[in-house]
Amino acid sequence: MKIVKEFKEFATKGNVIDLAVGVIIGGAFGKIVTSLVNDIIMPPIGRILGEVNFKHLKFYLVKTETMTPDQIAQAPAIAYGSFINTLLDFLIVAFCIFMLVKVINIVRRKEKKEEAPVEVTEKDCPYCLSKVPVKATRCKHCTSQLEAAAHG
């Protein structure tokens, strides 16, 4: 029962839920990118290259001249056209993630610039470790002589 309680605490933490939502949205985004590559980008490229369908580009590992179409479909082959499609999928997703991170970094830098620098108004007394004003020359707690602040 203890393990069930621990798992429930783990699964309901905000980070785990955020991660799950990210994975689900990422999977859906991946399907959109795959459709973009297969249905929109690759057909014009195939047409430009002479009516080539990248899904059918294969390097057969056996001689196929005497085979029937059914035998050719079953023949061992390296499907480099499918690999090209998958590579384009990856490059588009990677570029989108890069752009998203770039925008997030710009927003973060802008937020940091908008934050006013904090002015230091107190320092620690080296003798009693109490807080004293930066411009103080004597500690109000232990009355020790402090170095004069270099303000001017």
Characterize the structure shown.
With 152 residues, the protein is mainly α. It has 2 domains: 2-115, Large-conductance mechanosensitive channel, MscL, domain 1 (Non-ribosomal Peptide Synthetase Peptidyl Carrier Protein, Chain A), CATH 1.10.1200.120; 119-152. It has 4 helices and 4 strands; from the N terminus they run ααβαβαββ. The strands form 2 sheets. It has a two-stranded antiparallel sheet. α2 (14-48) packs across α4. It is elongated. It starts with a helix and ends in a 19-residue tail after the last strand.
SSE topology string: HHEHEHEE
Strand order of the largest sheet: 1-2
What is the straight-line distance between the termini? 67 Å
Mean pLDDT level = 84
Percent of residues in helices comes to 55-70%
* Name of the CATH homologous superfamily of the largest domain: Large-conductance mechanosensitive channel, MscL, domain 1
CATH fold label of the largest domain: Non-ribosomal Peptide Synthetase Peptidyl Carrier Protein, Chain A
How many beta-strand segments?
4
Query: Whole-number radius of gyration?
Result: 33 Å
Mass-distribution shape: elongated
Q: Please, how many domains?
A: 2
* Major sheet size, sense and barrel closure: 2 strands, antiparallel
Q: How are the SSEs ordered, and which strands pair?
A:
Blueprint: H1 2-11, H2 14-48, E1 59-60, H3 69-74, E2 77-78, H4 80-114, E3 122-124, E4 131-133
Antiparallel strand pairs: 1-2, 3-4
Helix pairs in contact: 2-4
Q: What are the defining features of this structure?
A:
152 residues; mainly alpha; Non-ribosomal Peptide Synthetase Peptidyl Carrier Protein, Chain A; 2 domains; two-stranded antiparallel ribbon; two-stranded antiparallel sheet; 4 helices; 57% helix
